[in-house]
Structures are given as structure tokens and as C-alpha cells.
Write a structure and sequence with these properties.
With 258 residues, the chain is an alpha/beta fold. The chain has 9 helices and 14 strands. Helix 2 links the parallel strand 4 and strand 5. Helix 3 crosses helix 4.
Amino acid sequence: MTYEAAILDVDGTIVRGERLLPGATDGLAALEAAGCDRLLFSNNPTRGGNHYRSKLEPHGVDVDPERVLTSATVSAAHLASTHPDASVYLVGDDRLESILADADVGLTDDPEAADVVLGSFDSDFSYGTLWESLRALRDGAAFYGTDPDTTIPVEDGLIPGSGAILAAMGAVGGREPDAILGKPSSVAAEAAIDRLGADPGDVLVVGDRLDTDIALGERAGMETALVLTGITDEATLESASVEPDHILESLGAVERLL
């Protein structure tokens, strides 16, 4: 099949931590040779496009920051558009706070003043944070999450992610988030398609997570390819409810789909 564009996950697909994954360079070169437009989409809720240009440049991978989306930038754009005058109470990283501020999202440190609560990855998450989350959520504020990833792959294993924090916030608040704004949401899919300017049927999604990368493509009518260099392994696939169109050992094997 000929694809007009590809949406590529980053962590677990191109890199793991600071290490370039085997086959990543070959896969990127194959997509370029096939004339396939490329959009990187990470569920990292603490970074924007410039970070990935700096992260991949030492590996010889040229990245246009305008061709990068993250759950942080998508969340910021969505809140700025849909809640322009709201006071947003953030449970998240300082870098996410800066990305929200740069998008003119109104932030508050007072949980009692929150119109919107945004939950995300926070390495300083504590009992006190959870208590303030309860105060912010109990008066009916809108409740969003940047991404559902319960774990994040790093070089020496896994660390807890946004999904774990959202689960704790939801437990004390007695409610699920009203929406997740990063992958695999419709908000994320629409942001990616708008950035690419392509028809979903002409787009290939490549990633290592069934519940985010593959689910994003499946829900939006895109072709999907799972790589086995990240979170998902063959044992997980056997019992999964989400089924990719293709399974690749690594991004380097994408050439056989082009």
C-alpha cells in the first residue's frame, strides 16, 4: 500500500531513554524514500517539539518541531480553544505548566478556584497533591488527563506515568476523567490529521502501545503497525482486544509495508 503520511510514536519506537533503537534510522530513511510525510507523536506530557529535535539530532535524525505533537502540546491547544476563560488547576510537571502558559491557558494554584482540573505525570506527586485534587474535583470542575499511560519506558525499565496519577485522582474524586486529550483520543487524532493535512485512510500509525498508538489509528480509520521494541510483546498480543494491522520487529521493518 502507498501511504501519504505516517504518525510515529517516539519512546519505544524510535528511542528508549536516550538510546536510539535498532532499525530506527533505517525505518525513517525508508519512509523518506517512499515520499511519506512524517509526524512524530509522543504521549510525553512534559515536552514539546523542540525537545525532540534536540533529542534526536545527536542520532543524525532531523526533526522539524512543527512536525511533532505531544500530549502536552495537544492538551494545551485543546484547553486554550475550548476553555479560553477557565482557571485550570494542574497536577503535573513544571515543564507542562510552561507549555500551558505559553498557550495562554489560565492557571490557578487554588484548588477551590478551579474550573478545570488537568491531571498528568508529576514526579513530586504526594498525599498533599492528592488532597488538593479532591478539593478541586468535588465542586464539579471539568476533569481531563493528558494521557493514559500508566507506565513510561526508560533505559533500565519502567517508571509510573500519568495514568497511575489519574487513577489516584479519580479514586478520591469518585469519577473518571471527562476526557483524555493525548493518544488515543479523538482530540489527538484530529490534531494529527490537521497537522498532516492527509486523509485518515492514507495514514499509517506506528507505535509500541496497543492502548494508545494502535487504538488511535484503529478508532480514526488509519492503518496500524505495532513494533515490538517497546511496551507490547507477543504474549500481550495474544490476550489483547486491540489488534494491529501489522506487527513489526522494529521500525526498520516498515519498509516491507511501503
